[in-house]
Amino acid sequence: MAKYLLVSFKTCPWVQRAAIVLREKNVEFEFRHIDRDNRPDWFLAISPHKKVPVLSIDGKVSLFESNAIAEYLDETIAPRLHPDDPVLRAVNRAWTDYLPTFAEMVTGSAYADDEAEHKEAIAQIPLAFARLEGALEKQGAGPFFNGAKYSLVDAAYAPFLQRYDFLDRIKPLGVIEKFPRVKGWAEVLLKRPSTHSFPESEFEPLYRRNVKNRKNYLSQFVADAAVAAE
Question: What is the distance between the alpha carbons of residues 125 and 67, in angstroms, rounded to a whole number?
Answer without folding.
Answer: 23
